[in-house]
Amino acid sequence: MTVSGSTWRAAGRALFGRRARLRWVHLVLGGAMLMPFWLVGMVIQGPLQGPQDVWSASPSLLFGAYGVALPLAAVGGLFPTARPLSVAVARALCGVPGERLADGQARTQAGRMRTAGWCTLHMGVGALVSGASLALPPFAAALIAAPVLPGVRDYLQVEISAWSAVLLPLAGIGMLLALAAVSAAAGALLARQAQVLLGPTPADRLAAAERRATELAERNRLARELHDSVGHALSAVTLQAAAAGKVLDSDRNSDVEFVREALAAIEETTRRTVGELDAVLGLLRQDGAGGADQLGGPTLATLAGLLSRSGVPVSLHEEGALTAVAAPVSREAYRIVQEGLSNALRHGGASPVTLWIAARDEELEIRMENPLPERAPVERPGGGRGLCGVAERAALLGGRAEAGPQGGVWQLSARLPLEGRR
């Protein structure tokens, strides 16, 4: 294909392609939406124009009514439903990417003023294109047909000569092409302005960012719940099952009671974890609706059950009334202890763990220690997420947490405000 041929094709698509046709429909729709306001303008302009037929084709009356209709269209754009409707139509007909337009009603003064400006532009330009689309095609068709239809020539009061027989059809075709060009240009103008007038305002962007941050925080919370509950359960079950298997392999009948206790611990751990998993998955099926308050979960009041079936010997030292700790803080404290036990199981085997929990006037202090293993623990690909989750839990409550080797032991400590931020 030659360069000139591709240029003509591109010009044809720009004037008569699918996008141009949809934008023309969008303009005609804007003109139709202006019609009620234009009729009000006709009624208002009639007495001001003097004694004449209100429905006459006087240009001063028509354009005077048009001038009255535009401010009324702007007022209509201030209504709450104006922006959602305008955005829906612009997405469908203007060819504007949906992500560049705002969703929902305009809740700020700047957003409402932009919507009013869009309605004025859409209806005003649409009315002009609609009027031209009604008036020019019949007249252009008459010019094209005039050389061959005597009745049309008489109506137009033109004389046919060799020049007029050529120029009149060319003039008619030129009018149609000009109308198509003006319509395409007006549609492109509206498509550009839609991104400005119907796009998100700074307040809309801030609200969207806050919604995304809230959703992300909720997803992270659910991920931490799954990691801590399921990860601890798998670590405990693995250790108990391995210990029971070694006892059975040794053929020591005197240790049958140990095997029974290990199996009971596995049963209770999996039953408790299935309940927690069901609660978290229930929220996921609801897309996290209800937030953290509906998540519930175990608290420090049920800590004794966790420690008794943790798979490692735990020496607990308590200070203060742990049952009086606020539920959000108590839930996070339970998960921090659970993650600490998981780390002890995973890296320290059956080494004993010492746990201190103190509820003081303004904060809850948690400290866990277990001996460091003789060998460095095997790192998992990509690293673990448990300690990061502990730090996140503490930070969300306005506290802090840290973990690492301290004088021959592995220590995990956390300080949580008793009131928390939730």
Structure description:
The chain is an alpha+beta fold and 422 residues long. The protein folds into 2 domains: 3-200, no CATH class; 207-417, Histidine kinase-like ATPase, C-terminal domain (Heat Shock Protein 90, 2-Layer Sandwich). Helix content is 65%, strand content 9%. The protein is built from 12 helices and 5 strands.
Secondary-structure blueprint of this entry?
Blueprint: H1 3-16, H2 18-48, H3 59-76, H4 82-93, H5 109-145, H6 150-156, H7 162-197, H8 202-250, H9 256-285, H10 303-308, E1 314-319, H11 327-348, E2 353-359, E3 363-371, H12 386-396, E4 400-406, E5 409-417
Parallel strand pairs: 1-2
Antiparallel strand pairs: 2-3, 3-5, 4-5
Helix pairs in contact: 1-2, 2-3, 2-4, 2-5, 2-7, 3-5, 5-7, 8-9, 8-11, 11-12
Count of discrete structural domains: 2
Which descriptor suits the 3D outline? elongated
Specify the CATH homologous superfamily of the largest domain.
Answer: Histidine kinase-like ATPase, C-terminal domain
CATH top level label of the largest domain: Alpha Beta
The radius of gyration is: 38 Å
The description of the largest β-sheet is:
5 strands, mixed
| Unreliable parts | 288-294, 378-383
* Helix vs. strand class: alpha+beta
Q: Strand sequence of the main sheet, in spatial order?
A: 1-2-3-5-4
Quickly count the helices: 12
**Roughly how many Å apart are the termini?**
68 Å
Mean pLDDT: 80
Estimated helix fraction: 55-70%
Write the element-wise H/E pattern from the N-terminal end onward: HHHHHHHHHHEHEEHEE
> Within the CATH hierarchy, at the fold level, what is the topology of the largest domain?
Heat Shock Protein 90
Query: How many β-strands, per DSSP?
Result: 5
**Proportion of strand residues:** 5-15%
